[in-house]
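Bug #77: duplicate submission created two jobs. Keeping one. Sequence:
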Amino acid sequence: MMLPTHAVIGLALAAPLVVLAPELAPAALAGGLLGGIVPDLDLYSGHRKTLHFPTGYLVAVLPTAVVAALVPQPAVVASLFFLVGAAAHCQMDRFGGGLELRPWEGGSERAVYDHVRGEWRRPKRWIPYDGSPRDLLLLSTVAIPLLVVLEAPFRLVVGLALLVGGVYVGLRRRLAAIAPIVFGLVPEALSEYVPDRYRN
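Kept job's structure:
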């Protein structure tokens, strides 16, 4: 799934605290947002492997939740929702397409790397690929209620996610067509940093 969808779902997971514990909601929302985003910082270095830990994040949630229940401080709550957002991100990547430039072709069986099992988990393709119309539908379904519930600055983040997501969906297939051309212009000294999927 596309990054705006991951970001908004990270926010949505923390949104109940707006009602349940409003004093902790900003920390929870910031943590959930970052947790939804951070795993994709490995986009150009072992994407869906380097910062994706589908089992590790889940395992870390339980003890952190216990600590947050005992010590309900903003930093602890932010850490908890960071882990929740990151765990959701990694699980959601399994529901999408494979790790390839044109995932609508269904040529890759790599969704996300499971470090515990030492193997790639297969894509389920419930959301056919990142930037698909179904991805935008999921983003919109989660984002629109958040626009009502959240206040600034998080409402602005949700609005930007909708805007960026809509533009990305409109351009997704075109971007896949031009990526090999653009990355083919990268100087030789930097070409080793270009992921293989962008070369063809």
